[in-house]
Amino acid sequence: MDRFIFLTTDGLSKGAVYAAFALSLVLIWRAARVVNFAQGAIAVAAAYMAFSITLHTGSYWLGFIASLVGGFILGIVVERTAMRFVGHERPLDAVIVALGVVLVLQAVLGYLYGNEFIGVDSPFSRRVITVGGIDLLSRFDLYVFAAVFLLVAGLGLLFSKTRLGLRMRASAFAPEVSRLLGVNVTRMVTLGWALAAAAGALAAMLILPGDLGLHPNAMDGVFVTAFTGAVIGGLDSPQGAVVGGLTIGLLLNYVTGYLNPLFSADLGSIAVLALLLAVLLVRPGGLFSGVAARQV
Predict the structure, then answer these.
(1) What per-residue confidence (pLDDT) applies to 294?
(2) Is domain 2-121+134-282 given the CATH code 1.10.3470 in the classification?
(3) Average pLDDT along the chain
């Protein structure tokens, strides 16, 4: 029972990071109807900015802020220089351009910082807190939960309680009508990219310390896992992204903790693929695909 509790709490912590990254993918999909395959590379670039600022100032929090701001700016740059001119007639075009952005960013990062893994320090202790003899969470895990909660709550307030959020939602689901009503749809799409890139940068800052370390390709695996969570939840549903990310985190921990030792093999990826296939067979649009998507 103790092992189950630890695997659950640790899985929720990891799943929260996947949820944050999945949420960034959902934001771009809702804004532009594009699956941004460059999201992982953008997040890593923002994390390298944080590393540089922290290295020169000695302050993790200045680096943290720099990563969010850098991600926000990178999202604007990528949308305005590469993705804005991609048409929607052939969906594969956006995929090819995004993969080109990945190659460019990873090449630049490799040139500037090298291709060796760089260790990233955690702002809080990763020692697991024991309560009643049961291992629960570390201070860093609590920090992860708090950061992801603030992200989800902030985006929820933005889209449900502000005029800006209303404009962004209207631009995503009825762009032509929004233009007639005086909404600058192009600007709203750019803002969607910027917010999504900042959310991806946050996810990178939460998962890179200790687990992965900095490397130009560090977020590739996270992208695949988080994208799976977004598809499971439904690419049009922010709530689905959160649920999908948490589900993936729990599934990976349970499989790693219980099945891997029995079969002496890494079955996590197979379990995630099986879950994805099951959801797609039963509900192809995702578990939370209750709203009809706009057509572009």
Answers:
(1) 46
(2) yes
(3) 88
